[in-house]
Design goal:
The protein is an alpha+beta fold. It is built from 6 helices and 13 strands. The protein folds into 2 domains: 141 residues, PurM-like, N-terminal domain (60s Ribosomal Protein L30, Chain: A), CATH 3.30.1330.10; 138 residues, Phosphoribosyl-aminoimidazole Synthetase, Chain A, domain 2 (Alpha-Beta Complex), CATH 3.90.650.
C-alpha cells in the first residue's frame, strides 16, 4: 500500500477545483473538515463535516482495551477535527463493520451513543455489518463553525506568524499501548476560546493526530509557507522519549495554530488551564523543519505517524 501522505497528496490534487459549479461547497478535501453552506446562497450558514475511522489492531489493541475506551476514541477522533476548525459538534453518524467473533455490539454502540451525547453530538443514525475482521468503526460528525470567526482552515498561515501548541506532546500510546490516546479530551472549548480571544489573528489551526512534525507540515503545505520549529521549545509529555517523540509519536490530539503576533500577547494558558507554548515561526518558503538542540536543521514534515504504513 502507498504511504498515507502520498495517497492524500493525490486526493488533494484531484479535488483542487471541486467547488467549481458547486456553490454549497466552501472547503473540500485537504483540511480537518469539509465546509458546506446549508443553501446555495453565499450568506447561508456553514456546516462542518468530518469522518474518521478506528481500526482494530491499528488504533487499539482489542485484547487490552475496554469497550468504553474503544467507543470513546472512535467518537473523539472525529470530534477533534471539529475542534481543529474552532467549531462545535452538533450530531454524529456511525457505522461498524464488526468481526464475526465480536459479541459486545450493544455495549459498544451504547457507549458510542453516550460519548456522542457527552460531546454534544448525539448519535442519530448509522449502519452495522459483519466482517471476518478486523473490526472497523467509522464516525461522521456534523458541526457548526465559530459564529464570529468562522472556520479556521489550515491554509491561512502567513510569514511572521508564531506557531503554538496546546498541552504536552509525545508518548501518547504509553509503554503498554494504554496511554492517553484512549482518554484524550478533544479541545472543543479551547478551539472556540482561541476564536473568541484572537478572532482574525488566528490564521490557521490543525489537531495533532499524526505528530507535530507531519501536521505542522500540512499547515505549511496548505498555506504555501515554511514553518520552522525549535526542538528546545517543545512541551514534552512525561511519557515521551525526548523531542523526537514529541514531534513524531502522534495521537496527541492537541491543537497546533498560527497567530499574527501583532495585536497583543498570547496567554500562557487557556481558561481551562491548558498550557499554550510557542514552538516556532512561519517564514517565507516551503516545507517544515526543526532546529535541533545541537543546532542542526532537519526536515520535520515526515516525522510523524502514517496510518497507511
Amino acid at each position: 500500500m502507498k504511504p498515507e501522505s502520498e495517497l492524500l497528496a493525490h486526493i488533494y490534487a484531484r479535488s483542487k477545483h471541486i467547488a467549481r459549479g458547486h456553490p454549497r461547497i466552501v472547503t473540500g478535501p485537504g483540511d480537518d473538515c469539509a465546509v458546506l453552506r446549508a443553501a446555495a446562497d453565499p450568506a447561508a450558514p456553514a456546516l462542518l463535516l468530518t469522518v474518521d475511522q478506528l481500526v482494530e489492531g491499528r488504533h487499539y489493541d482489542a485484547d487490552r482495551t475496554s469497550i468504553d475506551h474503544i467507543a470513546r476514541k472512535a467518537v473523539a477522533r472525529s470530534v477533534s477535527d471539529i475542534a481543529a476548525m474552532g467549531g462545535r459538534p452538533v450530531a454524529a453518524l456511525a457505522t461498524g463493520a464488526l468481526r464475526d467473533t465480536f459479541d459486545n455490539e450493544n455495549e459498544l454502540f451504547d457507549a458510542m451513543a453516550r460519548w456522542g451525547a457527552h460531546w454534544g453530538c448525539p448519535l442519530i443514525g448509522g449502519d452495522i455489518a459483519r466482517t471476518e475482521g478486523p473490526s472497523v468503526l467509522t464516525v461522521t460528525i456534523v458541526g457548526e463553525p465559530h459564529a464570529v470567526r468562522g472556520p479556521v482552515l489550515r491554509s491561512g498561515a502567513r510569514p511572521g506568524d508564531g506557531v503554538y501548541v496546546t498541552g504536552a506532546l509525545g508518548g501518547s500510546l504509553g509503554a503498554d499501548g494504554q496511554g492517553r490516546h484512549l482518554t484524550f479530551d478533544p479541545r472543543i472549548d479551547e478551539g472556540a476560546w482561541l476564536c473568541d480571544a484572537l478572532a482574525d489573528r488566528l490564521h490557521a489551526m490543525i489537531d495533532l493526530s499524526d505528530g507535530l512534525g507531519r501536521d505542522a507540515g500540512r499547515i505549511a503545505s496548505a498555506s504555501g509557507v515554511r514553518i520552522e520549529l525549535d526542538a528546545a521549545l517543545l512541551p514534552i509529555a512525561p511519557a515521551a522519549a525526548g523531542w523526537r517523540a514529541a514531534l513524531a509519536d502522534g495521537e496527541d490530539y492537541e491543537l497546533c495554530f498560527c497567530i499574527d503576533p501583532v495585536g497583543g500577547d498570547v496567554p500562557a494558558r487557556t481558561p481551562t488551564g491548558l498550557p499554550i507554548t510557542r514552538v516556532g515561526s512561519v517564514i517565507e518558503g516551503a516545507g517544515c523543519v526543526v532546529r535541533t538542540p545541537e543546532g542542526d536543521t532537519i526536515d520535520a514534515a515526515e516525522l510523524g505517524w502514517d496510518h497507511g504504513a
